[in-house]
Each structure stands twice: as structure tokens, then as C-alpha cells.
Amino acid sequence: MLEKYIALYLILTLLFSYIVSFYLQKRFPSQNDKNRELDIQRLEPFKEKPFHRFLLKASLYKTNRVMITLFIFLFNMAIPLLGWIFTIWIAWYFTHIKYEKKVVFTNILDLYEFKTHFLEVERVFGEGSLLNLLDNEYVPKTKKLRALATLASTSSPVSLAIIKQTLSSTDDEIRLYGYSILNNLEKKINTQINTNLEVINKINKYATKTKEDEALIAKAAVNLAFSYWELVYMELSHESLKNNFLNSSVHYIKIAKKFYLDELHKLQKNPNYSTEEENEELYETLENLYMLKGKIFLYKGEYEKAQSELTIANELAHENATYIILYLAEAYYNLKKYNITKSILNQYKFLRFNAKIYPIIQQWETQSA
């Protein structure tokens, strides 16, 4: 009687193994000349490792239905009943598992290249390629996360605009990482604002203020002016709050300018006063304040006010004013004073070597011709 049960189990197991091998063979590519050549290449590194070669060679029989059937049959004979359950699960797993698609060549800049190449101009060439990388569904997630990390390190309006696009990503990890970058940056700026507001509010409670107190207020006002501007410039503020932030920035610029201009007048009245080089920090602070106010007026479309502020910033900066020139040229251009714009750009011809600025210069010169 026992022999009959064993014989029946053998037949059922053999039939079961044959049926399962039919489904498993679908999971693996059919054996052909190309696959045989690939198998030989896989075996090549194991010439001098007999045991590893044996294991790999055995695994190559996955495309052979007879070998699959034999393996499943022996496995289920070794582990009766439980082997059936495990085999069914393995067959289901192999026929339903999906691997992440991997593209060997994506025609996109490799992020690792930025560590050794294009160090000075990586943002000029990098942002566009990173946008393509993030939009490409075949690019591995790890590479997209590295792209987001690269964009987060630049903290420019362009890079943040690209990061914002990831908020609509279907991948939870990509979407949450993008949100985390934006949230951390906004939190950092808000912390700076609150810290400097506390300094000003604390000092304003004093009945009388010393010169040191006024200096602290002026320094905090400078930080507040730039922090409020950064919220708008980085597109981190809601549309309804932009005007309030810009007005707050202008308010604190006035407070800071009053203090630093008074300091400058005092120095100029001093008989020992010689040149501005001895008070470089004071000139630099005033230059930055005038330039910031000029940029705010440019943003608001008040070009005459912008031109006035930027001209003063340019005078304060003297020979180091090349970074102000383009803003000043923009102000004159929007005031339709094209000859002045062209004259400014002709004065600084080396700006044409900047790949990012050159197209703008070409456009301005064409329209002002």
C-alpha cells in the first residue's frame, strides 16, 4: 500500500514540476546564440575557481525546461508537501516581480563629473541637464536624489524652480525629498528673520541707546533686508505676501542706510580721514544696501528709482562694480535709454565671454541698435 502512495506522489510531483517549469521558463530569456555567448562571458572570470564556476554553470540551465523540471522534482522529493508550497510561491514571485529599468547611457551629464570638471561654470551647464534627468522615467532613483542634492547646494531661483517640479512626482521619496529641501531653506530664512527681529525689539525697549546698540540695530536691519528679499527672490513666499516682504526689505534698508551714512559723514569730517580703502567694510555695506534696493525696484518695475540706487551703488564700488553694471544696463534699457545701455555694455566688453550673459547682451544690443 505504501509503495502505491509513494508511486502516486512521484507521478504527481513529476507532473507538478513539469507544469511549474512551463511558467518559470517564461520568466527567463530563451536560449539562443546571443545568450550562449553571454553565458560564456559570465563563465570567463571563473576559470581558476572551479567551485564558483560549477555554481554559475548550474545557474545557466535556467533556460532549459528539462533541467528546471528535474530541479523542482528533486527539490519537492527532498522536502515533501512543504516543498510544493515553497515552489508555488517561488513560481508566483518569479513571474510577477518587476525590476527597475536601468539605462546604461541616458545622454545626460553624469553628476560625478561635476566633482572634477566645469568647477567654475557647473551651474551654467548643469541645471538644464538636471531638469532632463529628473523628468526621465528611466533614470534610476538614486541618480535623481543626487541631482536634487546638487540643486539644493546652489540655492538659486532656477534650481529651486526645478526642485518645486518634483513636488508633483509620483515617487514618494523624490517628492518628499524635494519638499524637505524647500521647507528647510524657508525655515532657515525665517529663523534668521526672527533672530534679527528679536535683537531690534530687545534694544528698542531701552530708554536710551548707546552707539553700540545703534550699530547692532543697523547690522540686524541689513540681515533682515536681505532675508526678506531672499524669500521673494527664491520664490519661497506666497504671491499675496510678496509686496509685504519687499516693503519690509525697503524699510530695513532705510534704517541701515541712515546709520551707515551718518557714520560715513562723521568719518569724512574727521581731519585724519584719508581714503575709502581704510573703511572698506563701511563702503561695501552701503554699496550692498543701494544695490539691493535697486534690485527691488527693478523687480517692482520702478526703473527710475532702480537706476538712481544702482548708480550710487556703482559709484561706491568704483572699479569693483562689474557685477552692478548689468543691473544698471537693465534699468536704462527698460527706461528706453538704449544708447546708454549700449554704451555701458561697450565699456565692459569682457562680459561677452560669460556664456550665461552673452545671449542677453546680444538681445539688448540688437534692440537698441
Count of alpha/pi helices:
16
CATH architecture of the largest domain: Alpha Horseshoe
Tell me the total number of β-strands.
0
Strand residue percentage? under 5%
> CATH class of the largest domain, anyone?
Mainly Alpha
Estimated radius of gyration: 35 Å
CATH evolutionary superfamily of the largest domain = Tetratricopeptide repeat domain
Number of domains: 3
Terminus-to-terminus distance: 107 Å
Question: What share of the residues lie within helices?
Answer: over 70%
**N-to-C series of helices and strands:** HHHHHHHHHHHHHHHH
Regions with pLDDT < 50 over 5+ consecutive residues? 111-125
Shape: elongated
User: Do you know the CATH topology of the largest domain?
Assistant: Serine Threonine Protein Phosphatase 5, Tetratricopeptide repeat
The structural class is mainly alpha
Structure in words:
There is one protein chain. This protein is elongated. Mean pLDDT is 77; it is low at 111-125. It is mainly α and 369 residues long. It has helices at residues 2-27, 33-43, 50-59, 65-78, 82-96, 122-135, 141-154, 157-165, 172-204, 211-233, 242-269, 280-300, 303-317, 322-334, 338-347, 358-368. The longest helix is centred in the middle third of the chain and has 33 residues, at 172-204. It folds into three domains: 2-96, no CATH class; 111-168, no CATH class; 186-368, Alpha Horseshoe (Serine Threonine Protein Phosphatase 5, Tetratricopeptide repeat). The chain has 16 helices and no strands. The N and C termini lie far apart (107 Å).
